[in-house]
Amino acid sequence: MVTIARYLNVTLIVPELDKTSFWSDPSEFQDIFDVDHFIMSLRDEVRILKELPPRLKRRVEIGMVYSMPPISWSDISYYHNQILPLIKKYKVVHLNKTDTRLANNGQPLEIQKLRCRVNFSALRFTSQIEELGKRVVKLLRQNGPFIVLHLRYEMDMLAFSGCTQGCNSEEVEELTRMRYAYPWWKEKIINSDLKRKDGFCPLTPEETALILRALDIDNSYQIYIAAGEIYGGQRRMATLAAAYPKLVRKETLLEPSDLGFFQNHSSQMAALDYLVSLESDIFIPTYDGNMAKVVEGHRRFLGFKQTILLERRLLVDLIDQYNSGTLSWYEFSDAVNESHENRKGQPTQRLVIPDRPKEEDYFYANPEECLQPSYSRLDLPVGGL
């Protein structure tokens, strides 16, 4: 939206966060991000206001505002041809869905570079979140290197995706009820087994434990779990905890009083995990959601810090073969390592798929126009950790 406002030469109002689709988090943009820094750092590019001027605010209050979702993956020219005339006509246009509204590829270089400037410089968390993030990283560093595991195995994720691998019948029913409870989640009847085989499910904690072992990640490493409450709790985490006893979370590293302010503010908790994820020696997401993609791109920007990008479709097939006895442990481990040799966040060209942008590499996961290929990778070798 910053980039679009700059291109159209219009004023941007500080964004509002969605509080209606699923999240019950009451956080506002300014509760998560340093708004003054956001506005000041972009002042030479675009005019940003904290709120509408009184005259325009009154227009909005009486319903004189045009609200619409822009078309996903649009070229920047779409905004000049379709959105700018609406702004001239209505003075205020409320764009009510703003994720993935600009195409990954084919945009002018200055547009791409501005997107990076916003992501990696203008957007800075509040001082309270930043300071707590530094404390968590310091506590982890005192005990040596650490891996951040972005374990997307929360109840809402499973209900939305329909992925129920390892869940009992009561849990399957509970997840199904939740999916039907949200009318804007359009997919209701889901074949979990088929979706898993196609690579569209987050790895389970049990599957993740197998993959970490196959990648030769030493069990003396600290593994920081960046996630909300894991569905199934300790029962589902038992295998991973047995394989990697140094599992930690923000809740185990900090006192309850440290996190009291963040309770019931899931976006602020996620911001804390984001900061720790950036600083980790290795970042491993078990699902390629928005946060995982942005962390991946940010770590590339910081010097291609190692991020292991799991090929889930291949991995679940290998896991099933190993569990059935078709593959020995050594065959399984060799296959996992070989298939991920070039999936560690090293410099690579973004995958472009004309007419299928959702299947492309997302710009913010690999903003190659903004990266310095001459950087050496700031990583640790996987073998023998």
Total strands: 8
Report strand %. Answer: 5-15%
The low-confidence parts are 374-385
Q: Give the strand order, joined by hyphens, for the main sheet.
A: 7-6-5-8
Secondary-structure-derived class: alpha/beta
Envelope shape: globular
Overall pLDDT score: 92
What is the string of helix and strand elements? HEHHEHEHEHHEHHHHEHEHHHEHHH
Number of domains: 2
Helix content: 40-55%
From the alpha carbons, calculate the radius of gyration and give it in angstroms. Answer: 22 Å
The profile of the biggest β sheet is: 4 strands, parallel
The tally of helices reads: 18
Q: How many angstroms does the end-to-end distance come to? A: 42 Å
Q: Can you walk me through this structure?
A:
The chain contains 18 helices and 8 strands. It is of the alpha/beta class and 385 residues long. The strands form 3 sheets. It has a 4-stranded parallel beta sheet. A two-stranded parallel ribbon has the order 1-2. A two-stranded parallel sheet has the order 3-4. The longest helix is centred in the N-terminal third of the chain and has 15 residues, at 76-90. The protein is globular and about 70 Å long. The two termini are 42 Å apart. Mean pLDDT is 92; it is low at 374-385.
Question: What is the compact description of this entry?
Answer:
This is O-fucosyltransferase family protein. The chain is an alpha/beta fold and 385 residues long. It has helices at 2-8, 29-32, 35-41, 54-61, 76-90, 109-122, 127-141, 155-161, 169-181, 192-197, 205-214, 233-243, 250-253, 256-259, 266-279, 290-301, 312-323, 329-339; strands spanning 12-13, 48-49, 66-68, 93-95, 146-150, 222-225, 247-248, 282-285.
